Automatic annotation (TrEMBL), chain A:
Residues covered by the AP5B1 C-terminal domain: 779-871
One GO-annotated biological process of the protein: endosomal transport
Classification of source organism: Eukaryota, Metazoa, Chordata, Craniata, Vertebrata
Residue ranges constituting the AP-5 complex subunit beta-1 beta-barrel domain according to the UniProt record: 688-757
Species this protein is from: Ictidomys tridecemlineatus
Coiled-coil ranges per UniProt: none
Name this polypeptide is given: AP-5 complex subunit beta-1
A Pfam family matched in the record: AP5B1_N
Domain (AP-5 complex subunit beta-1 N-terminal): residue spans on this chain: 35-104
Gene: AP5B1
Cellular component terms (Gene Ontology): AP-type membrane coat adaptor complex; lysosomal membrane
Keywords: Protein transport, Transport
Automatic annotation (TrEMBL), chain B:
Pfam families reported for this sequence: Adap_comp_sub
Protein family according to the UniProt entry: Belongs to the adaptor complexes medium subunit family.
Native source species: Ictidomys tridecemlineatus
Keyword Flavoprotein set for record: no
Keywords, alphabetical: Cytoplasm, Endosome, Lysosome, Membrane, Protein transport, Transport
MHD domain span: 177-413
Membrane topology type: Peripheral membrane protein
Protein name: AP-5 complex subunit mu-1
Subunit structure: Probably part of the adaptor protein complex 5 (AP-5) a tetramer composed of AP5B1, AP5M1, AP5S1 and AP5Z1.
PANTHER family: AP-5 COMPLEX SUBUNIT MU-1 (PTHR16082)
């Protein structure tokens, strides 16, 4: 494909600039970088078009050549184009140099292994120092601008790879004394000096050697990368260079150079400073920042070198220069600025912060500088805005806010005024009152403007911002807050349409303002007739400020209002207030109101809601109500109130499935009373309230069981055992399915399945009532005989463990023994609910067991008895 | 866009680095042109307090900061300076050198676009020059010369050999008849209340503008500003960076000082080496009292005027605006009256210009006028201190006259 025409390129570049990402994603995107490089060589395109192509590669190299090999190839290609330019004047040399530098630096290619880097660096250095770079590089008339450009490119490379030019400090210094563009050279030298000092503080080749090194060391074609490598000079996030002059830990560790090094360093700095007036003001400012940063924390470097410059700079109106002076102030503190100097600087800053000849953004920036002023002896906590000690009310006279100011100026000056008020309180009473009076007047004026019917929204916003600022700075000063609260109440009275601002303010301010403001605003709203056109705002406001124990005034306001809530929006607002009242616990009159609303509202949805609220109020206890209506736990981020409400109900009212919060186990047998009772041990794993345990018997072996209730369980706190009476329909073991329903500490109702509980055969055993006196001998025999013929008889071998018969009986069968002749004979009678019995005769034990004769009136239990007796010795 | 700077930002800012979005989304998010009618929490929030023209933008859920931006003449000027440290928490603005550099760049772009520019064509021409100029004045994003006009000259000025010590702020040298033009402009703003309990306020700002056509690389010039005997001292003096030294009395003189006989009242000496172009040598203020100007009243924030009867004593009256154009000369009596009866109609809410002062019964008259060859302070240049070929003095005033019958905003005194 041949080169594109000028128009085609203009169109293509336009499309790219409109949205680079969209263009690169398009069909044409991939080829752009390649086409651009190839068309730069084309002879058909004008220089102007080529310059615009280069401008694009200066701005978007990452999009054009996204990876390292592509960037390396592009840089090589740009350098080729540069050296092949015919030796006549051309507008392309400078942008080509800039583009090659940009591509190398931003593409992450710069380094000893990159061919393009190894070509570009000597070329730049040669151009900069005015040495012959071979083959008639450009006409003589271009030498000087190219020299400047070369310095600029070198500076950028040094910025991206600190230490890159560390080896050329001496060369650069010697250039400073010679003919050449002084500005780019000064900036490059200052930067290289600073970076060398930073690198030095990490490793340590001789500074002096570097400063003194002559031209000869660079004559060879190879570049010295050692400093870059040694300093592992990949850029590192710098600790703030501000404000700690003393700390020194800001990337620049304390260096202790030798006296000779100090002398050389000082000579270099002095040389730079002496000629600094030849630089443009912005460049001077950069030089000062760099040198200030370089020398900060360096022992044996009195910053007095800067003094002569300061005298010149303090009078200036130039933003960057005054800022640089502040940087020096921060870097050197008292070493450079005596307290008189500090006072003078503050005075100049105050003048500049209000000077009518300067533009507004400058004023604002200087005001910020005043409040962050790097004091010699700061009192307050670091990093917090404060009025400097030397900045008295007298000095601030011209910095007072006024209604005529632009909103930003007004707010920033108001902040200063608040700081002065906060500070002055203890000191001079009279002065404080004066300031405070002024503050009040100002706020009143702001409110007056905000109260204007039909006034712009910005005025209201400004008023509330100012109120917030004052409330947050002077929260502990009732002298200020009281009139503020009254004023805001009046503002609401005058313009209820500002309700959203009030609601927002109440959300943001601290309790010192919020609570009293809520009270006066509530009074303000409920004292209204409740039927004016601002009803919508009143309701919005009331939803924010209503109190839980709905006072009669609030309720009667709502009652009146209800009659005027004609359309859906108002009804919704009304219900929101009810909801707010509900959430806080409701109150006596609220139920009546809700019932009335449920009948009266026109909108069916509104009636439903009112009814729902009424039902909730009637059925839920206060805390539960709070949870149900409170901010949704399930979806706290949802902004829609309706959604939030639904989510809240869902979370609050619907029972949530959860993991078992307790562990249940069957405790020792009780064996008394008319019914078998299961003794359950409970262990809480998390706090639960209002616990209800439900038991289900598998296979309907027992009658349905009553649920068990526990008010509260806490982990680690011993709990009483729970008694669960069983009503068996058959004397058979069973499994109980257990479910727990409970409330969490956050008020949610949860449901959990617990592991099933086994009810063993023995758990059903009950003793016979004691026979009357005298009837005992025949009692057992009577029972024994009554079993047959309906029942069954059997003999079972009951194995005995090492413990013997007596222990076995006492452990398991004690309550049921009717007659005992230890150790040879026991008569045991067991009642099996609902209406069976089991009779055992334990005979004389033999070596490993005891023969048991048994009778029961229910033959179905025989296998269970066999298993039970045989299992006794195993369970030991 | 400066990719090398962005690359450094990525390293310096670490995890807090946020890439600069493309132009469209960037400007949309900056929202300097928005005018919202309804309460929108995001902008009208009471905690959303901007105390400087440095903003934070939300970019894809992350925060781009600091964005230096302002709106001037319907154009948005914005730049994003490099911060050589991490951004969370935000370091104080004062510790970021790029803030003042960024502001300066924007001021200069603005100054360049609106200097001697008459119409949209002129503006478009200048806009088209801008990319090239920025490449010259700020390669790699480092601002080298804030004077863009200079950079423009620099491109066109192909000097074959520049001598040693050629200042970077001076593109070439002047050859021809030596000539110095000085003009002193004083702007006066005054609020006159005509009330006993409120003092009138006023503000006098002077600017001394030089154009020095002198031969040599670094000609030294000294001028001194003089005041009449018993004149009010010049205060708040801010000078051009080319001024080489300043007397401490000039440095410390400020508007908070009480004006008494002991105050330094000149002559104010300024030694400097002038650049080629015309420049503001210094700005000053003064507390010289402004004579009262009597005037009557104007209405705002009310309904439209439905009926008007008027009679002007002098000049032409513009009916729709109720402005009386006096013309080039004041009448001999120094008094102009405009009387009439005005009836206001019902106020309609929308689209009316809103005035922040006219609240309740407070109204004002705004007067603009300028006087040639006169300074209120009496400040003048001592012609013997420098060879002067042309002196032109101008005074421009704008007065606000407030209705004395109603409360009015006051400033702290």
């Amino acid at each position: 494909m041949g080169p594109l025409s000028r128009e085609a390129w203009a169109e293509r570049l336009g499309a790219f600039r409109a949205s680079p990402s969209a263009f690169m994603a398009g069909a044409d995107g991939e080829d752009l970088g390649r086409d651009l490089l190839s068309d730069l060589r084309s002879e058909k395109l004008s220089e102007q078009t080529k310059v615009s192509l280069l401008a694009l590669s200066l701005e978007y190299p990452a999009q054009l050549w996204p990876d390292v090999p592509a960037a390396e190839a592009a840089a090589t290609s740009l350098l080729d184009i540069l050296v092949l330019l015919p030796p006549r004047p051309s507008a392309l040399r400078r942008p080509l140099l800039l583009a090659a530098t940009t591509v190398l630096a931003s593409g992450g290619v710069l380094g000893p292994t990159s061919g393009a880097s190894c070509r570009l660096l000597p070329l730049l250095l040669g151009l900069a120092t005015g040495r012959d770079v071979g083959r008639g590089f450009g006409p003589i008339s271009e030498q000087r601008p190219l020299q400047a450009t070369a310095y600029e490119c070198l500076r950028e490379l040094e910025s991206c790879k600190p230490g890159l030019l560390g080896g050329f400090l001496g060369l650069l210094r010697s250039q400073l004394g010679q003919e050449g563009p002084i500005q780019p050279l000064s900036l490059l030298l200052a930067l290289a000096l600073r970076n060398t000092l930073v690198v030095q503080s990490r490793s340590g080749p001789g500074l002096k050697g570097l400063l003194m090194a002559g031209v000869s060391s660079t004559g060879s074609g190879t570049w010295d990368w050692t400093l870059v490598e040694e300093g592992h000079a990949h850029l590192q996030p710098q600790a703030p260079c501000w404000p700690a002059a003393e700390e020194g830990a800001c990337g620049l560790a304390m260096l202790e150079p030798s006296p000779e090094e100090v002398r050389e360093l000082r000579a270099s700095v002095a040389q730079l400073l002496d000629t600094s007036y030849l630089l443009t003001p912005v460049a001077q400012a950069q030089l000062l920042w760099l040198l200030g940063w370089a020398l900060r924390g360096l022992r044996g470097q009195p910053p007095a070198l800067f003094k002569p410059q300061l005298v010149r700079l303090l009078g200036t109106a130039q933003l960057t220069l005054l800022h640089a002076v502040l940087a020096l102030k921060a870097a050197f503190g008292e070493a450079l600025f005596t307290s008189q100097d500090e006072a003078l600087l503050l005075r100049r800053l105050t003048v500049a912060a209000q000077h009518p000849a300067l533009p507004l953004p400058t004023h604002l920036f200087y005001l910020h500088c005043l409040l962050s002023f790097p004091e010699n002896w700061p009192l307050g906590p670091e990093g917090e805005e404060a009025a400097p000690l030397l900045l008295g009310p007298q000095l601030c006279r011209g910095l007072m806010p006024s209604l005529l100011h632009d909103p930003m100026v007004l707010l920033s000056r108001l902040h200063l005024l608040c700081l002065l008020c906060a500070e002055d309180e203890e000191e001079e009473k009279g002065h404080f009152q004066n300031l405070q009076w002024y503050l009040e007047e100002l706020l009143a004026g702001l409110r007056q403007r905000a109260a204007l019917d039909g006034g712009p929204r910005a005025l209201a916003t400004l008023c509330f911002q100012a109120s917030y600022l004052v409330a947050s700075c002077l929260a502990r000063q009732p002298m200020v807050l009281t009139p503020l609260i009254q004023g805001l109440a009046q503002l609401y009275q005058a313009r209820p349409v500002l309700a959203p601002h009030f609601v927002e303010l109440l959300d943001r301010v601290g309790p010192e303002l919020r609570e009293p403001l809520r009270v006066v605003l509530r009074q303000e709203v409920v004292s209204r007739p409740g039927r004016d056109e601002a009803l919508r705002w009143h309701l919005q406001m009331l939803a924010k400020v209503a109190e839980g124990d709905a006072q009669s005034a609030t309720l009667s306001f709502l009652q009146t209002a209800a009659a005027h809530c004609a359309h859906w929006g108002l009804q919704e607002a009304l219900l929101k207030v009810c909801r707010a009242l509900l959430r806080e616990g409701g109150g006596a009159g609220l139920a009546d109101l809700l019932q009335a609303l449920a009948r009266q509202l026109e909108d069916p949805d509104g009636r439903d809601h009112a009814r729902l609220y009424y039902i909730l109020l009637a059925h839920l206890a206060g805390p539960k109500l709070g949870v149900a209506l409170g901010p949704s736990l399930a979806a706290p981020a949802l902004a829609s109130s309706l959604m939030a409400e639904n989510q809240g109900f869902a979370a609050g009212l619907i029972v949530q499935e959860a993991l078992a919060p307790i562990q249940l186990s069957v405790g020792p047998q009780r064996a008394s009373g008319p019914l078998p009772v299961l003794q359950l041990q409970v262990e809480a794993l998390e706090p639960v309230y209002s616990l209800e345990l439900r038991f289900l018997v598998e296979g309907q072996l027992y009658a349905p069981l009553e649920p068990v209730h526990v008010p509260c369980l806490c982990p680690g706190r011993p709990a009483h055992p729970l008694l669960l009476p069983l009503r068996p329909r058959q004397p058979a073991p069973a499994r109980l399915e257990v479910q727990a329903l409970y409330t969490t500490p956050t008020g949610l109702t949860c449901h959990a399945h617990l592991p099933p509980l086994p009810v063993n055969f023995a758990d059903l055993f009950l003793p016979f009532p004691q026979p009357p006196e005298g009837a005992q001998p025949g009692f057992f025999e009577g029972l024994w005989d009554s079993c047959l013929p309906k029942g069954a008889e059997s003999r079972v071998w009951c194995p005995l463990g090492p413990q013997g018969l007596e222990t076995l009986v006492s452990r398991y069968l004690e309550p049921f023994v009717v007659m005992a002749q230890p150790p040879t004979s026991y008569h045991i009678a067991i009642r099996l609910p609902p209406n069976s019995m089991l009779l055992l005769r334990l005979e004389a034990p033999q070596v490993d067991g005891v023969p048991v004769a048994l009778r029961t009136d229910d033959w179905a239990v025989l296998p269970l008895v066999g298993d039970y007796l045989r299992g006794l010795s195993v369970t030991e | 866009r400066y990719p090398t700077v962005e690359k450094r930002a990525k390293v310096f800012n670490g995890a807090s680095y946020v890439p600069i979005p493309e132009d469209g989304p960037f400007l949309k998010e900056l929202r300097l042109l928005d005018d919202d009618k309804d309460f929108v929490e995001r902008h009208d929030c009471c905690t959303h307090i901007n105390k400087t023209t440095i903003y934070r933008l939300s970019v894809g859920g992350e925060e781009l900061w600091p964005v230096v931006a302002f709106l001037k003449n319907g154009m948005i000027y914005a730049s994003v300076p490099l911060v050589e440290q991490t951004l969370s928490p935000h370091p104080p603005l004062i510790s970021i050198s790029g803030i003042s550099q960024g502001l300066e760049l924007l001021f200069d772009i603005q100054g360049f676009l609106y200097s001697s520019q008459k119409n949209d064509t002129g503006l478009n021409t200048k806009l088209s020059q801008l990319p090239n100029l920025l490449l010259q004045a700020s390669p790699f994003g480092t601002l080298l010369d804030a004077n863009l006009q200079n950079s423009l000259d620099n491109i066109n000025f192909a000097s074959v050999s520049q001598p040693q010590k050629q200042p970077a702020w001076k593109v070439g040298t002047y050859k021809g008849k030596p000539q110095v033009s000085i003009s002193i402009t004083e702007k006066v703003k005054s609020m006159q209340y005509d009330k006993r309990d409120i003092e009138d306020t006023w503000q006098v700002v002077g600017a001394v503008i030089f154009k020095c056509d002198l031969e040599g690389i670094m000609p030294n010039v000294t001028i001194s500003l003089n005041l009449p005997t018993n004149g009010f001292p010049l205060q708040d003096i801010l000078v051009h960076p080319c001024v080489t030294s300043l007397d401490s009395a000039i440095l410390t003189s400020s508007n908070i000082d009480a004006v008494d006989d002991s105050a330094f009242s000149g002559p104010y000496k300024f030694p400097f080496t002038p650049p080629l172009e015309s420049f503001n040598l210094c700005y000053y203020t003064s507390q010289v009292p402004v004579p009262p100007i009597l005037a009557h009243i104007h209405f705002y924030n009310t309904g439209p005027i439905t009926q008007l009867e008027y009679k002007g004593s002098f000049g032409q009256l513009e009916k729709s605006l109720l402005i009386c154009i006096i013309g080039q000369k004041f009448p001999k009596s120094m008094e102009i009256s405009l009387s009439g009866t005005i009836t206001f109609g019902a106020k309609s809410h929308d689209k009316q210009p809103f005035d922040q002062i006219c609240i309740g019964d407070t109204v004002y008259v705004k007067l603009h006028f300028s006087i040639l060859d006169y300074t209120l302070t009496g400040c003048h240049v001592d012609q013997h201190s420098v060879q002067v070929f042309a002196i032109r003095k101008t005074k421009t005033s704008s007065h606000w006259k407030l209705n004395s019958k109603a409360p009015a905003p006051v400033t702290y005194g």
